[in-house]
Structures are given as C-alpha cells and as structure tokens.
Write a structure and sequence with these properties.
24% strand; alpha/beta; seven-stranded mixed beta sheet; Spore Coat Polysaccharide Biosynthesis Protein SpsA, Chain A; single chain
Length: 237
C-alpha cells in the first residue's frame, strides 16, 4: 500500500523571530548554510527524490523569498501567499487543492539534515502505508544531537506509532519532515490553526507513525545555532 509522493509543501511563511537580526531582511528559510540557503537545499533534496511540484507558502518578506525562488529552475514551484498568517495548519489547508487525494511531503522551511543511503525522504516513502497512516513523521534522537540542542517531543513505540510528550521529556524530537494524507484535514478549521492539532488527532486515532532519522539533523533556532551549523558545513567544503 505504499505510494511515493511526487508533491511537497514547504512551510516558509513564519516570522523567524528567534533568529533575528538575520530574519529582519530575509525570511528564515533563506538563511544560508555554507553559502546555500536552507530552502534551496530542501528543494534540491526533493528534486533528487523525484518530486515534481512544490508549494511554498509565503508571508514574512514574501517578495524577497519569491524572488529567490524564481532563480530555481526545478522542480515546479507554486507560491501560496498568505496576506494574514494562517499558522501551519491553516497555511497547508489553503493550498490543499494542489494535492488532490494523494499523500505528500510537508517540510518545515528551516529543516536541515544530513542523509545516508537510502535518504530520509526515500525511507519515509518506503515506510508510508496509507491503509493505516494519516501522518508519518521523521524523528531525531535527542541523544545524537551535539551541534544544536534538541527537545524530546515524541515517544517512539516498537510498532512505529508515536505518543507526544507533553513535558517534552521524550527521546525523540520532531525533525520537521513528514508525509501526510489530505484526509487528515477533514473537519479542520477554515481559519488559522496549528498542524500540531492534526498530529494530535492522528495520534488519538492511532494513525500517527514515525521513523527515526539515521543521520544528523540540525535544530536552527537562534543565531548561535546558525553560526555553529554554518561553521560545520564550511569545514566540510
């Protein structure tokens, strides 16, 4: 029952307040790591995975981001502009018509990760089972995070199901990469709301699953995080 997604959504509308002053002039997904923007790195990974169409939502400094996206030749990029911020759930629902009834990748605009073979996107696609899953998350072991700090969002069970840790004391952090089925939006609000509520809904219905990422992932929240990750990537050049 696996189905490899060929579309994706990148969440890029947020204000990025914790990363100021960098985000005073550019949206957070445009912050560069070793000379390349985070969003460009994500788009390249999606293209290599065979994704043909990517929807990117915009709000904060939207013209700056849209100009940056025009310089990218492929995959096809569709901009979903939000005049008023719709939060993660509302922003995704606004663009839901682009995905029909097919599962698709959803990636946070600041998600940055290293890959082994098979890569994280392929491993998610291989693990996806629409007959039992509404959302499949990529999780990072907090214990493996040394360059940036992590918090324990989820408990990962032996059967692949996950439980959210309300005290954030679990072994795994959500890595901002997932596959979702559009049906999860049924009966969701029509205004601004958080996608986390849909993750909680899937958990309640025993349709929230996850796999563990098998390489490094970076939680870029502050200027200090950015500097540390940029230094690491530049050392690899």
């Amino acid at each position: 029952m696996t189905q490899k997604p060929d579309k994706a959504f990148i969440l890029a509308a947020g204000m990025g307040t914790r990363l100021r002053p960098h985000t005073d002039t550019i949206p957070k997904p445009m912050v560069e790591i070793a000379g390349q923007s985070i969003i460009r790195r994500t788009i390249d990974k999606l293209g290599q995975q065979g994704v043909k169409e990517i929807v990117v939502n915009t709000h904060h400094l939207a013209p700056v981001l849209e100009k940056h996206l025009k310089d990218i030749s492929g995959p096809k990029i569709i901009v979903s502009h939000e005049q008023e911020l719709l939060d993660t759930g509302g922003g995704l629902k606004k663009a839901l018509h682009h995905f029909g009834d097919d599962p698709y990748y959803i990636i946070n605009g600041d998600a940055l990760w290293d890959d082994k073979t098979p890569n994280a996107l392929q491993r998610l696609a291989d693990a996806w089972d629409a007959s039992k899953m509404d959302i499949l998350l990529l999780l990072q072991s907090v214990a493996t995070m040394s360059v940036t700090h992590g918090v324990g969002d989820y408990h990962l069970q032996a059967d692949g199901k996950v439980k959210r840790a309300r005290k954030r004391d679990a072994a795994f952090m959500f890595a901002g990469v997932r596959i979702a089925h559009p049906r999860i939006f049924k009966d969701s609000p029509d205004n601004a709301f958080s996608f986390l509520s849909l993750m909680d809904k899937a958990e309640t219905e025993n349709k929230l699953y996850a796999i563990q990422h098998d390489d490094a992932w970076y939680h870029i929240s502050t200027p200090e995080d950015l500097a540390a990750v940029d230094k690491l990537f530049k050392e690899r050049l």
